[in-house]
């Protein structure tokens, strides 16, 4: 070019470059069409199946593109081996975190750590997994109960409901922090509600009101299903009797503390606890019992004498000067 010989630029390499671009475009087009087809076939009803089909298409497209480019540029196996060794060494040094994230992606898939739609805590972020990529996991963030409101980052939603923020985390977080899965294998959670009552209240009646309210709104053992119960017993050695709602009593300096423990589904917990709390409050009020609180009532005072110096009493106006 302009009398200067450009190293590596010739007709053969030009053909290879053209073939490479055309091949990449073809692979991308086929992958895009496959993704669109999977979306049409599975839609929202089989969202998880569609997601994994698209993941398989992406992996297959990447492998085909890499194999095709290697076959275009390297016709000599010896040259391919040398080039691949140099490339792998440089890539491993420059993209350590990326490679680690991709390795974590494979572990997530192989170990069934979580999947799209699962509710998890990962890297300090709570929420539902809405996308799982080669490098990043995308989570629709949810709020936190009052007991963990001071965590970082701070939350303004005081329950396990969406905050509206979408958080992206690199997959390598699974190597640094635990991953808590709310929905894996057993889509139910144990919850508790604490109700303080006075020492003058009828404990047996209050306990029955609380258990009735919980039983009315929570999961029945028949809803869980025999297969889920058997899997729960096999994996975690949980007895079926421990799945029924149960109340526990604790004595404090101010009131009797009743804690009711029950099982609910992994989503919609706040609505269920709201219904239970309203039913409990209504039942206690109808029975003439109330929820105890840290208020104080003055029932008596000692006599108080007041001495006024240099004061003149005016009977007509009843004022002191």
Characterize this entry briefly.
The protein is built from eight helices and ten strands. The protein is α+β, with helices and mostly antiparallel strands and 321 residues long.
By DSSP, the count of extended strands is 10
CATH architecture of the largest domain: 2-Layer Sandwich
Instruction: Tell me, rounded to a whole number, the average pLDDT.
Output: 81
Percentage of residues in helical conformation: 40-55%
**Spatial order of the strands forming the largest sheet:** 4-3-2-1-5
Residue runs with pLDDT of under 50 for 5 or more positions: none
Q: Number of domains in the coordinates? A: 3
Question: What can be said about the biggest beta sheet?
Answer: 5 strands, antiparallel
Secondary-structure element series: HHHHEEEEEEHHHEEHEE
Question: How far do the termini sit from each other?
Answer: 112 Å
Number of helices: 8
Q: Which structural class do you get from the secondary structure elements?
A: alpha+beta
How would you describe the oligomerization state of the chains in this entry? single chain
CATH class of the largest domain: Alpha Beta
Approximately what portion of the residues adopt beta-strand conformation? 15-25%
CATH fold group of the largest domain = Alpha-Beta Plaits
